[in-house]
Amino acid sequence: EVQLAESGGDLVQPGGSLRLSCAASIYTYSNYYMAWFRQAAGKEREGVAFINPYGSTNYADSVKGRFTISKDNAKNTLYLQMNVLKPEDTAMYYCAASYSGSSWSWGQGTQVTVSS
After folding, report:
1. d(Cα 91, Cα 37) in Å, to the nearest integer?
2. What is the pLDDT of residue 88?
3. What angle (nearest 5°) sits at the alpha carbon of residue 10, between those of residues 99 and 72?
4. What's the confidence (pLDDT) of residue 29?
5. Which stretches of the chain drop beneath a pLDDT of 50?
6. 3-class SS letters over the chain
7. Measured between alpha carbons, how far is 61 from 7 in angstroms, rounded to an integer?
8. pLDDT for the residue numbered 27
């Protein structure tokens, strides 16, 4: 069973930074595809950043150059460093894990609000 717990969401001013964390309870964590998704009010959930078991990363165009996904296999923890935050980054952010890279398990989410 996969269990994911996000933390780090907060209210931040435009231009600010936040780091989200996701503690994963997964037996073979290093073999999993991991990702961050987000869902803004009234919008569909979208993929923000992905990291595969080999450490290769991929980002949505809207966050390239501002967000960085990383993971610590020793701590079973996924991170999302978010810099130069914009109001349009406001959303519930979800950690996700997949063994196959297609079917995802989800955390409960952490709220990020970017506002002055």
Report:
1. 10
2. 97
3. 35
4. 82
5. none
6. CCEEEEECCCEECCCCCEEEEEEEECCCHHHCEEEEEEECCCCCCEEEEEECCCCCEEECCCCCCCEEEEEECCCCEEEEEECCCCHHHCEEEEEEEECCCCCCEECCCEEEEECC
7. 24
8. 80
